Amino acid sequence: MDRRLTPFSGRVAHVSLSGQVNAPLTEGLQAQVIVPVANLCESPGGARDRQLLLGESVTVIDRDAGHVFVISAKDGYCGWMKESDLGQGPAPTHWVASPGTHLYSEPQVQAPERMALSLGSRLAVVGSWGAWANTPHGFVPLRHLRALGDWASDPVAVAESLLGTPYLWGGNSRFGLDCSGLVQLALHSCGLPCPGDSDMQMSLGRQLAPNEPMKRGDLIFWKGHVAMVVDRDRVIHANGHTMSVSYEGLKDAVARISAGGGGLVQTRQRL
């Protein structure tokens, strides 16, 4: 079983694994991310696999010395995170639709900011004050939010809004992205399902025939890497070459990755 998608901490398992593991079972407890960005790790305090954003939901399965083993509601990804990064709150009503925004202590631009938020963060709007949304965490410009269900329409345009974002292994936010994090954030912003890692994303769509031309929004995969097609000649991807989200010529990317030992293109997918 893929540990990333298996809700089993090694000691306690989710009830969905009944009959598959010899361990105590639990339905778990629901919780919500209460910090701007939380790391989801392979072990308590271990290496980062992915990240979760403010307002995202998890199911807590196990606890260990200030860490909790969780299932992410958005994609089923499992891992350990700091228990202090989780709490309770009202169900989110809106999502951050701009590349980034700030939470302010008061509804005015001169007010001290409380925290910076990434595209994709989720908030419960409990009221408004002019051009400001009032949330349990503070005030946010209304123009930076959209109601849940009011999604963007073009994943490539979402990815393009993140140009220049620094590369970060396992990153899922405007503060740092890796290749699969960029694809997932772009697709989720359009209300489309998407798993967390590039190997999982290989089965997202229809595999293109060898001579079938690529078009905007198609995904191109190498071993351990994914890029999104912008047009006939360019891709956009979070990459270690520029250490950022950047454009690259499609032919240039294929040649560079091959020359650098990354191998040949493994598959091309159309959503």
From TrEMBL:
Presence of the UniProt keyword Electron transport in the record: no
Domain NlpC/P60: 149-271
Keywords noted in UniProt: Hydrolase, Protease, Thiol protease
Entry keyword annotation includes Protease: yes
InterPro entries with a match to the protein in the record: NLP_P60_dom (IPR000064), Papain-like_cys_pep_sf (IPR038765), PG_Endopeptidase_C40 (IPR051794), SH3_16 (IPR041382)
Pfam families hit by this protein: NLPC_P60, SH3_16
Sequence similarity: Belongs to the peptidase C40 family.
The protein, known as: C40 family peptidase
Lineage of the organism: Bacteria, Pseudomonadati, Pseudomonadota, Alphaproteobacteria, Rhodobacterales
